[in-house]
Amino acid sequence: MSGSGSSPALGGATSDEDANTSPPLQPPNPSTSRRRLPPWHPDFTGPYRLPETEYHPSELQPPARRRPTSEGASDSARTKRSKSGASESESDRETSSQEEPGSGSDSSAHSSPAREPEMPLVPIWRNSKGKLVYGFTDDKAAVAKYRQDLRKYEEKLAQQEQLLTLKLPSKASGTNECYGSPKNKDMILNAAKSILSLSAYLDGKEINRCTGIVVNRDEDKKSLTILTSAWLICTEKPSNDWLDKEYAPQAKVIVHLPDGTTVDSQLMYFSKHYDVAFYEITGDLHLHSLPLEGNSEFGREAFVLVARDTNLDLIYREAKLASVGPCEFQHNHYKFITCSIPNKCGTGGGLLDSNGKIVGLLSYTFPLVAFIPSSLIMKCSALLRKLGKIVRPQLGLKLKTLDLLGMSCIEQLSHNFNISSGLVVREVSAGCVAERLGIRVGDVILSCQGESVSSIAQFEDILLRVGEEHLEKSNDLTCKVDVQVGVFNTRKCTRKLVTLKVKLSDGVEVFR
């Protein structure tokens, strides 16, 4: 239609030429618009654009930015940018590109702040409330420049987020955990000086990776002893701990230090039954040793789990002792805590008591994390130094502590039979000596070698002493030893002493 026309949306008149070259100032109809992209979409190039004669510059208030920026722009600066035709953020980006590390610029120069570039927006219509609505200009060069600047801005943000003070902790390291108190923080930082990451390689291929703890320092030899899990060199570990496992003691083990450097290590010894291993590294290394605590009673106090993930980031968790025993597929000597570690790289980490001492070595199990009490590890370490090997009698019994029974059951045993502590037989290996001598599931082991027993760790300690005494007399592992146990027969409600003549072994106890 020719002739003059009016714009109800703006209240201003347009010329015939304007009417022919500019669309009416109404919201676009998705069913008829040439492009069905929203005006704020980066690929939107029109066609709705107002003639400059139909709005006043004071009405052009840019919309809110998509994300917070480090510094806002003042009205005066915005006015200055509109007059000069170049935004301040553009000049900042040019400076930034010249000051990136490695560009040869003066290292003392200030880095430019990260500011989001201004969108090349123009008003496209007024809405029903009379407010201007903005969209991208159809100036393709301006849009291309904006996208280029936006990419630079996103890259700068990504670099900024990697700063140590701004970097978000990984999920593995304890993002949702709190170290609780300044004392705990200092304890964790002190323990971190002894927590390392180890990786094992066979034929040039990594087979496992886990955590290790520096437990001893020899100043004369300039060597450090690292305690870790034998899972590190396990090439085939069945889900059942009572089955035989395959290990690769010849595997090359590299120790990853907290500063990112690595050092080769030498295998000293590993125990298949207890799944612990000792490695030695040498050199003038600034690492601390973390003492083992052998007298922890594992009450209701809180513990702290410490380990390292594959990025060498510290993993820490607050945990408590779980009132559960091992399942039928897990070793007797496992205890459990009420937390988790993200993956198997946490195996070999340490469980700290309130004094910052190691009370257990972690093992990745599902659904709860298991640990081996430090008292057992200390006994193994002592035997290793003294005799060069770790052996124990194999009884063929799966056990759990009587304390894990319900209080009602404990009260009845105490009242009716004067039994308040001991080890409950969960399973007996088929055809073993214990089975032939009448020990059955549900019976209670009250003593071993004349000593009352109330925990698995105490029972295992006695068995290790039996092995130690035998090795001191003879190095022959083919002969058998006598182990005397006091048994409460729950079916007949009687007590008896049973002597088990069993073999010694330095391997895993295979259960049938």
From TrEMBL:
Region of interest (Disordered), residue spans: 1-123
SMART domains: PDZ
Pfam families: PDZ_6, Trypsin_2
Composition bias type Low complexity, residue spans: 1-14, 101-112
Residues annotated as domain PDZ: 393-483
InterPro entries: PDZ (IPR001478), PDZ_6 (IPR041489), PDZ_sf (IPR036034), Peptidase_S1_PA (IPR009003)
PANTHER family reported for this sequence: OS09G0436400 PROTEIN (PTHR47389), OS09G0436700 PROTEIN (PTHR47389:SF5)
UniProt protein name: PDZ domain-containing protein
